[in-house]
Each structure stands twice: as structure tokens, then as C-alpha cells.
């Protein structure tokens, strides 16, 4: 039997035709391919009747501290699509800049996490009615912008809802909101970003209006695809976050903090995951590597693909995969800049930031308190280190105030590429 090709999108009643407009004003649609030798659902996104695989990167803000142009970095990476997490930063200015660079946008619509309080148990509460109205007003304002590719409604909300009643209420709210968005904007697809595979069954049962199942994935995508099949879910996958191991997946150091992988270890992980993703090119719509943008301090080292506007090793490897161009290698930072983990205030420390000896490399270091209230603050000050050196060896003094710190070091090569590393340090009372 020949392959049966159908032009499709998804609804609770079946599979119907749906067109969307790309950033270039060309018609796009989802296409499902069913073959007699493979019972799995195969999908592809077509733009102007041509296959379009999303080569994405998360990019929360268009511009960062010091005028860093993150959307330009996304374009240099070879991405064709960027993802945001909320409408606060995804304004018309963001979309205009993306369109000027030829980038499409998966527009994030942030839905609050319930955390310690009950929020979604009454899906028609006054608070949620106001939230729904605010979101729909913004959708009305942005839906005709040529850079809008799809909506990502909510991010890991189910994962943070502890009680069954809270999850049930959220799913009722989510399904209702998706229906309203699609009524107002029938020209764009709608997704939700779930945490790995834990939400698949609930989404299959209670969020039938979703077009695409978004998954934030930090493990093997092939295993996720198999779990999706076992759940009975037929809708296409889109990896709304895609990256190396998370802090919660790592062993702890002597002070109880996650051991931080080197830039090179994370790069190998990205390459392996992108290879695995390539084998699923007809079963998924692509992925958004995580990420670009001004982060919290714990994000700056762990997740960011750049140090300001300086590409790191993972960025270089992803760029080679996305566009095949040759990139200069990034410098290598040591895994543990300091061998001492408990010191007294003001203790002199000798750092060896890198084992490489390279010309015209700038090295820097910074101590950052680990206290919870500090971790929620922007990490922009880390882009201006406390100390700078032209050699990989640097002498520093431990902070004067007792407490736990991250010692964050970096090196910027003459070619503009960079590396970062982080280790924990405890400053004790003398």
C-alpha cells in the first residue's frame, strides 16, 4: 500500500485542515503521513508547501544588559524560530525585530503556577476571569503580526500543581482558554509546554483543543516519543525546551549543591540529543534549545548559551548543526577553579581558570551569594566581573561576609567566544 498523505490539524472531533501564516506571509499547515510499515504517527510542518522543521532557541528578551542583541544571536545561531515564555517581553517591538531578522516566534503566554496557594480549583474565579480577559486582549493585539507562528499557552503549570483538584481545575481553565484563543485567532496553532512526559495522559484526556504537545525535555527524545505512543497521544510533539542535564539530575558536591558540568560536557550532551532528535524528524516538529537572554544567576552558568554576546561551546556546536558553518572553538574553563570549599573571610585563593594558554584571552571572576533572595535577582552584574586578568592564573580574596557563595569564573577568547564555570564556596566565621 502506498503512503497515505493527509493535510491535517487536530481537534476533539478529528483531524481538520488548518492554515497558518508564516513570518513571510506564506501559508503553512500540519501534514500527517501514515505508512503501512510504521504504525506511528508521522508529522511535518509545511510552509508554502515546503517542509519546515523548527530549528529553535528560547529567547526570553530581544535585548539584554549592555545592549546585547539576543535576537541577532539567535539568527547567528542558525535558528529559524524563537520561543518566549510570556507576553510581558513579547510585545510588538520584539516581534518587529524578529520579523526584520526573518525569525518566526512561538509566543509564550505565561500562566501562573499555583505554588503554595489554591489558584485553579475554581476555573471561573474572579482572578482567573481577569487573567483570561487580559490574555485575550493581548492575543487580539498580536495575532495579525507576521512574525507570530504559534502560541505556547502555559509552561509546566501541571507539574507545579500538587493537588488533584488543582490539576483538574487548571485543565478546565486551559481547555477553555485555548478554545477562546482559537476562536479569536483561527490562523495560528496552539501548544502547551509540559514537564517531560508526566502530563501526557492528562493532556490527552482534558486538553483536546491543543494542536501540538509541547514538552520541556532534558533527556533522550526517543524515550519520550515512545512514552507518547504508549499514552495514546497522536498529536505532534514540539520540544519547547531542549538541553543538557538539569541541576536536579546531578550529584551533589560537598556543600550539598549540584555539581556543575563543564561547558564541554554540556556541549557533548547537546550534540547527542540533537542527533537523537534528528532520528525523529518526521515525528516531531523540532526543538527550542535552552537558552539565550538575561537570566537569574543560577541560569547564567547552567543554561545560557552565551556570556552576554559571547557564544559559549554549546552555542558553537548548535550553530554547526543548524547551519553547517565552521566556527572557532570556544576556550575551556576548568571544572573547579578553586580546590578549597570552606574558608574564612578574606582568605587568599589562587585560581587557575583555564588549563589552556591562549593569546589575547580575558579572564574574570565573581563571588555571588547563594541566598534565596539574591538568586531571584538579575545576573547582569556577573557580566562585569569583580576581577579581570590577562592570564589564566588569578589571585582573589574570599568575601568578607560569612555564607555560601558561587565562585563564577569566565574566559573570553580573542575570537569572541567564551567559557564559564561555577563552584561552591562556604565562608565560615573565623
UniProtKB/TrEMBL annotation:
Residues 1-25 form the signal peptide. Coiled coil: none annotated. Keywords: Signal. The keyword Signal applies. GO terms for molecular function: hydrolase activity, hydrolyzing O-glycosyl compounds. It comes from the Bacteria. This is Glycoside hydrolase family 2 catalytic domain-containing protein. The lineage of its organism: Bacteria, Pseudomonadati, Pseudomonadota, Gammaproteobacteria, Oceanospirillales.
